[in-house]
Amino acid sequence: KTKDAKWWAERFRSQREVITPLVLRDLQLTINQESSDFSKKFIEELGLTYLCKLGQQNPNQAYDRELLKVFKALIDTKVAVQAIINHNDCIYIVADKVSNT
Predict the structure, then answer these.
(1) Which InterPro entries match (predicted)?
(2) What is the pLDDT of residues 17-48, one digit of tens each?
(3) Which residues of 47-57 are buried (b: 16+ CB within 10 A; e: fewer)?
(4) How far apart are CA 39 and CA 30, in angstroms?
(5) Burial of 3 (0-12, 13-18, 19+ CB in 10 A)
(6) Torsion sign across C-alpha atoms 11, 71, 77, 48
(7) CB 69 within 8 A of CB 24
């Protein structure tokens, strides 16, 4: 069974595990497979915010590349764009990663 958006956001918030690029790849695949409501809910649950903060705390090129793919997958859902704009601190973090990748 696929985990819901709230589960994913909590996974990143709790930091009970090391979040690897492979985990981000799994998230990206989930976003691509789920409805756009999943993406919107993930952002509303602050999942993207937690991911961006983890990326700032642990600079890693592989993580950054996968974070950019997750961000693109979220944008591709179109419904999530307004939710992303409402969390504009994430936009700045992702833009910084683009310029450094």
Answers:
(1) ARM-like (IPR011989), ARM-type_fold (IPR016024)
(2) 889 999 999 999 999 999 889 999 999 998 89
(3) bbbbbbbbbee
(4) 9
(5) middle
(6) positive
(7) yes
pLDDT band (50, 70, 90) for residue 101: low
Cα 3 to Cα 11, 19, 34, 45, 88, distances in angstroms: 10, 16, 10, 14, 26
- Give 44: exposed, middle or buried? Use CB within 10 Å, 0-12, 13-18, 19+: middle
Which tokens sit at 73?
């997958």
C-alpha span between 8 and 95 (Å, rounded):
23
Both tokens assigned to 60: 């890693």
Amino acid letter, residue 6: K
**Residues 6 or more apart whose Cβ sits within 8 Å of residue 66:** 21, 24, 25, 28
Q: What is the pTM of this model?
A: 0.83
